[in-house]
């Protein structure tokens, strides 16, 4: 019976990604410290030191680009599951979201950062969100994990 319980626990972690249902680790202090360093070095110049984003981030500029959005609670980052945030960061918005003609100044970081660095930076961002937002984001991850187990 104990072996069966252990097997079920392992399956839950594999299928749902642990309690958050995702790949980010916003409660792991070592990952957060690494993520903060990555964020400061590669993200803060556009997304802001305090995750505040650029002014008028919802309106295209004169060249047709959207300014960098905030990653704090005033933005929409938490509306996207972990795996999509990871893909956007690694592959770029256009490829990750299948938006062929999307204009962005954000580079794809796949050739710049390791997967672990991307996860750390996104974990740092999530660690800064209010608890209620983190819980809603966890639920979003769990819903997608149940719908698309291969998309984890």
UniProtKB/TrEMBL annotation:
Recorded GO MF terms: electron transfer activity; heme binding; iron ion binding
Keywords: Electron transport, Heme, Iron, Metal-binding, Respiratory chain, Transport
Keyword Transport in annotation: yes
Claim: Transport is one of the keywords in the record: yes
Essential cofactor(s): heme c
Source organism superkingdom: Bacteria
Xref: SUPFAM superfamilies: Cytochrome c
Residue intervals of the Cytochrome c domain: 30-129
Protein's UniProt name: Cytochrome c class i
Record lineage: Bacteria, Pseudomonadati, Pseudomonadota, Alphaproteobacteria, Hyphomicrobiales
